[in-house]
Amino acid sequence: MSISVKTRVRDAEATKLRILEAAKKEFSKNGLEGARVDAIALDAKANKRMLYHYFKSKDGLFRTVLEREYLNIRTEETKLDLENLPPRAALETLVRFTWEYYIKNPEFITLVNSENLCQAVHIKNSPTLRTVSQKFIRRIQALLDREVRENVFREDIDAAQLNITIASINYYYFTNRFTGAVIFERDFTSPEALQERITFNIETICRLVCKN
Fold first, then answer.
1. How many Cα atoms are found within 13 Å in the side-chain-facing hemisphere of 122?
2. Could you give a GO molecular-function term held by this entry (predicted)?
3. Domain-by-domain residue ranges, the chain?
4. 210 beta partners
5. Could you tell me which of 95, 15, 93 has the C-alpha nearest to residue 55?
């Protein structure tokens, strides 16, 4: 490959990355329906023609952004050293990781909200997401099964159900922090409130899964 071709390839990849980052911000702020392609192109220092060339449509761009975000959390989960931790510590690590990931990546929550409003039309035919998600579930199930054999975890816990529950108790807190602050008359985002909540979430999951 000549130097000029390599340069064009690098430039194309850099442009696509800028578009994806700009789209992530726009979609997470305004949702799929409210997001403007003009705003994305302007923020990415690109033009709409390039955006449509790379991603075909606004929906195609949203699909790519969403798939990329799901792959990112799955990739980060693979870095957790769950298999080499004591049972309760492994469980705590998984719950805390999910909690901290949502804090550090608030766009993930709003993007998932938008996709649920679309009834998952953008990701339902993604073989990549299906593969990495099932791999993650199998990993958690293997962890559960190991600790069942060692008489630490309850034997009736399904890994998919556990993952849904962990995601739910962390996810709900952030998606409802504004209404919750009014209803329960407390600041959901203060350091003290966040620490109190993650402690509660960890204890809840451990009581659910552990025998003792």
1. 23
2. DNA binding
3. 1-55, 65-209
4. 153
5. 15
DSSP 37: H
Q: Which fold has domain 1-55?
A: Arc Repressor Mutant, subunit A (1.10.10)
Q: How far apart are the first and last CA of the chain?
A: 62
- Give the C-alpha separation, 48 to 54, whole Å: 10
What is the topology classification, in CATH, of domain 65-209?
Tetracycline Repressor; domain 2 (1.10.357)
Distance CA 101, CA 76 (A): 9
Structure tokens at 25: 């911000």
Q: Tell me how crowded residue 153 is: count the other CB atoms within 10 A of its CB.
A: 23
Residue 2 has pLDDT above 70, yes or no: no
- The pLDDT assigned to 112 comes to 96
Q: What is the pLDDT of residues 15-40, one digit of tens each?
A: 999 999 999 999 999 999 999 999 99
Specify the length of the chain in residues.
212
Listed in order, strand segments (DSSP E) in 126-188 are none
pLDDT tens sequence across 151-196 = 999 999 999 999 999 999 999 999 999 999 999 999 999 999 999 9
Whole-structure pTM value: 0.90
The answer to whether the beta carbons of residues 137 and 159 sit under 8 Å apart is yes
Secondary element (H or E) of residue 78: helix 58-78
